[in-house]
Design goal:
binds acetylphosphate; globular; alpha+beta; Cyclase family protein; Glucose Oxidase, domain 1; KFase_sf; two-stranded antiparallel sheet; 10 helices; about 350 residues; KFase/CYL; about 20% strand
Length: about 350
C-alpha cells in the first residue's frame, strides 16, 4: 500500500518510492514544500558580500531552433489602439490636451526557449494510477491529462498557441483562466527563495564530453567539499551556456556533448537525487541530463531524470541558467552556497516559465 496520503479518486497506486501523497493528496509543489522559513534563513546566512548575480540569459539568447525545434525567440509587438499602432503614440489622441507619449506592447513567448523552470506538468507518463490494468496519462501526484493538466487555451484545437494567434491574443479573444493544478503559477505563489548549493562540474571536466553519474558527482562533491542537504536547491555549472554565448547563438547540434552532463540512466545517481532531499535542480544546459538518453531502450523514457524528478518526486528542473559568473565568484572565495530567489512568472496553465533567478552571496 502506498505510504503517501491517497486522494479519493485520482490514484490508487503510485510509482515505486515516489512522493505522491507525501505532501498531501492535492499537492502541486512537490519537493518545493521543503523550502520553508528554515531554508530561507539558511539562505540568508550565506549572504556575506552583498553581491547579486543575475542567473538568466537574455530571453532571445539561446541558439535558435538547434536546442529545441519547437521553440522560437520571443516576438515583441506593439499593441493596437483603435486599429493604430500604439507606439510612440500621442496621448493627446485619447485625452485631448495631454502631452504624454506612450508605448504599449505584447509578447509571444515560448516559455522554455531560454532560462526557465520546467513545471511539474511538463513531463508526465502513461501509468496505471487507478490500478484498473489500463494506463492513463498522468503527472506528478496523479494529476490527470485532460481534466487537471489541460494546457494553454486552444491547445486541443490547434496545437500550442502559434504566432498566428497573435492578433487573437492581442484582442483578448484567447484568454487563459481555469488554471490546471500542476502549472507553474503555484510555484510563483511559493516565491522560490531558499538556499542553493552550486556544484562546479566545469571546473573539473572543462569542455570535455563527460557523462556524470553518481561516482563522478560524488568525486566532485568530495574534492570541492560540497555538502548538499535536504531542502537545498542544487545548481549544476557545466559551462554549456558560456559555449552558447561564445558561439554567438549558433551552437553545434551536439553542443551539450562538449560539457559535463548528468547521466540520467545511472540508477545510483537517481538514488542519490531521491535520498538527498534536494528541492529543485537547475543547470546551465538545456535539459539537465543528456537528451535523448543515449542508453534509452524501447519501452523506457528518453528523459529518465525528468521522469524521476518531475513525475515521481515533484522536483522542479531549471534549464539554461547562466551560472558561470556565480561559479567563478564562489570558487574564488572558497564557497559553494548562496541565497537563491527564482520565482517563475505567475502564469496560470503554463507548463514552463521564463525566470530571472537572482543569487545573493
Ligand atoms: C524537453 O522538453 C524534451 O525537455 P526540456 O525539459 O529539457 O526542455
Amino acid at each position: 500500500a502506498p505510504a503517501g496520503r491517497m486522494p479519493e479518486s485520482r490514484w490508487r497506486t503510485r510509482p515505486d518510492r515516489s512522493t505522491w501523497g507525501d505532501f498531501g493528496p492535492d499537492d502541486v509543489l512537490g519537493r518545493m514544500n521543503l523550502v520553508g522559513p528554515e531554508q530561507v534563513r539558511r539562505g540568508l546566512a550565506e549572504v556575506h558580500d552583498g553581491i547579486t548575480f543575475c542567473l538568466s540569459l537574455a530571453l532571445d539568447q539561446p541558439g535558435g531552433t538547434v536546442l529545441g525545434p519547437n521553440r522560437f525567440p520571443p516576438v515583441v509587438r506593439p499593441t493596437l489602439r483603435s486599429g493604430a499602432v500604439n507606439f510612440n503614440c500621442d496621448m493627446g489622441v485619447a485625452h485631448p490636451g495631454a502631452t504624454d507619449v506612450v508605448n504599449d506592447d505584447l509578447v509571444v513567448l515560448h516559455t522554455q526557449y531560454s532560462t526557465q523552470w520546467d513545471a511539474l506538468g511538463h513531463i508526465g507518463a502513461r501509468f496505471d494510477a487507478d490500478g484498473d490494468g489500463t494506463p492513463e496519462t498522468v503527472y506528478y501526484n496523479g494529476w490527470r491529462a485532460g481534466t487537471d493538466v489541460t494546457g494553454p487555451v486552444g491547445a486541443a484545437r490547434a496545437g500550442a498557441a502559434s504566432l498566428a494567434d497573435i492578433e487573437g491574443i492581442a484582442q483578448g479573444t484567447a484568454s487563459s483562466s481555469d488554471a490546471g493544478p500542476v502549472d507553474i503559477s503555484h510555484l510563483a505563489g511559493h516565491g522560490v527563495q531558499g538556499r542553493a548549493v552550486l556544484v562546479d562540474l566545469e571546473a573539473h571536466y572543462g569542455t570535455t564530453r563527460a557523462a556524470i553519474g553518481y561516482e563522478e558527482l560524488a568525486a566532485v562533491l568530495d574534492i570541492d567539499r560540497v555538502t548538499v542537504e535536504a531542502g537545498d536547491i542544487l545548481l549544476l555549472h557545466t559551462g554549456f551556456t558560456r559555449n552558447l554565448i561564445d558561439s554567438n547563438g549558433r551552437p553545434r547540434p551536439d553542443a551539450t556533448g562538449d560539457c559535463a552532463v548528468l547521466d540520467g540512466s545511472d540508477p545510483r545517481l537517481r538514488e542519490w537525487i531521491r535520498d538527498s532531499g534536494v528541492a529543485a535542480i537547475a543547470a546551465d544546459n538545456h535539459a539537465v541530463e543528456a537528451f535523448p538518453d543515449p542508453k534509452a531502450e524501447p519501452g523506457r523514457p528518453v528523459l529518465p531524470l525528468h521522469r524521476l524528478c518531475l513525475f515521481e518526486l515533484g522536483i522542479h528542473l531549471g534549464e539554461l541558467w547562466w551560472l558561470s559568473d556565480l561559479a567563478r565568484h564562489l570558487r574564488r572565495t572558497g564557497r559553494s552556497r548562496c541565497l537563491l530567489t527564482a520565482p517563475p512568472l505567475r502564469l496560470p496553465r503554463a507548463t514552463g516559465s521564463p525566470v530571472t533567478p537572482i543569487a545573493t552571496v
